[in-house]
Design goal:
Blueprint: E1 4-7, E2 10-17, E3 22-23, E4 27-28, E5 33-41, E6 46-49, H1 57-63, E7 72-74, H2 80-83, H3 86-92, E8 97-100, H4 102-112, E9 119-121, E10 127-129, E11 134-139, E12 149-153, E13 158-162, H5 179-194, H6 198-208, E14 215-218, H7 228-239, E15 245-250, H8 256-270, E16 274-279, H9 285-292, E17 297-301, E18 304-305, E19 308-309, H10 311-323, E20 329-336, H11 342-347, E21 356-357, E22 361-364, H12 369-389
Parallel strand pairs: 6-7, 7-8, 8-9, 13-14, 15-16, 15-17, 17-20, 20-21, 20-22
Antiparallel strand pairs: 1-2, 2-5, 3-4, 5-6, 10-11, 11-12, 12-13, 18-19
Helix pairs in contact: 5-7, 5-9, 6-7, 8-12
Bound molecules: MU-OXO-diiron.
Length: about 400
Amino acid sequence: MHKRQIKEKVSWMGALDWDRRLFDSLIPLPDGTSYNAYLVEGSEKTALLDTVDPVMADTLLAQLAGVDKIDFVVSHHAEQDHSGAIPRVLERFPEARLVVTPKAKGMLIDHLGVSENRFMTVEDGATLSLGDKTLRFIHTPWVHWPETMVTYLEEDLILFSCDFYGSHIAATDLFVTDPGRVYEAAKRYFAEIMMPFRKVIEKNMEKLKGIDIQMIAPSHGQIYDRPAWIMDAYRDWVIGDPHNLVVLPFVSMHGSTLQMVDHLSSALVAQGVRVERFNLAVTDIGKLAMAMVDAGTVVVGVPTVLAGPHPLAAYATFLANALRPKAKFLSIVGSYGWGGKTVEILAGMIPNLKVEVLEPVLCKGVPLKTDFEALDRLAAVIGQKHKDSGFK
Ligand code: FEO
């Protein structure tokens, strides 16, 4: 893909990674991704904003073949998918300064071995003139690493946001053409890496409030030429109330836990509560993370194996604890053969969650009438808690 103009003297560069299916050996990428870099050519100076994943460095270097001089390389984020090609770009443009937050400087030295004398650190709110174009740097920590910042191009009203507002999609359309598709991908990305940092992200969003942003150019996925909706979506994900929704990750070995999950799902629906279920044996973990953004309650369906929770349920519980969703209530349902410490072990795995734990329902072997009645009571409690909490 060649460089593509998005505004006068502002161009998209970068690479589409159509076939990548996993990020960090953890996060599913069903639609691939892109690593977006941007070239801003002022009347006096030229800046490159971000680079690409190191495996795609040749693509970026080929796009830069016709560029005589780069004065500044702005690195918004030290993670390799944006910074990995920086050493090669600095080698190709020996006069370029690397513009970063003070925190990013140390990280880029640690991760990429960049020489100390290439750096130019910028404070929050600092500006850099390229002649007829001005870059303003806004520190936005914890989106999703501690060093992250964004750049506002004052004359063109463009926010270069890096991971913030980004989505993992590989597409030839430069701008968003299908907001529904991008909404889902952006929510998935928020859920997987930003949800734990909601408090700081809220402050970052406050900082951006007074700025006239006509376009958001992230470093993954498509560019928002009408960015209001994605900023509204982030507000809902970050500060909106949990929804009247139970997220039910489960695993079943011989069908007993599945019977309980089926019964509880129906009982919750009868209580007017929405349910999203995820069979952990087959689910896309990103879908589960996405549902967690809205969950009012999480119920883990778990059989006991080897005297403790099934490892897939333990994995989902560990992940939920790490992602710190807004959910206010949590419970456990499941079946065991003869004993075990499933509830104690899972309860000990969620120290980060500020949840009220509702009475678990565990049954021995296949569930009986009394177990189904206990599930009905759990559904009624959840329904009432959601009503009392005003979840919509
Ligand atoms: Fe797209 Fe946090 O890197």
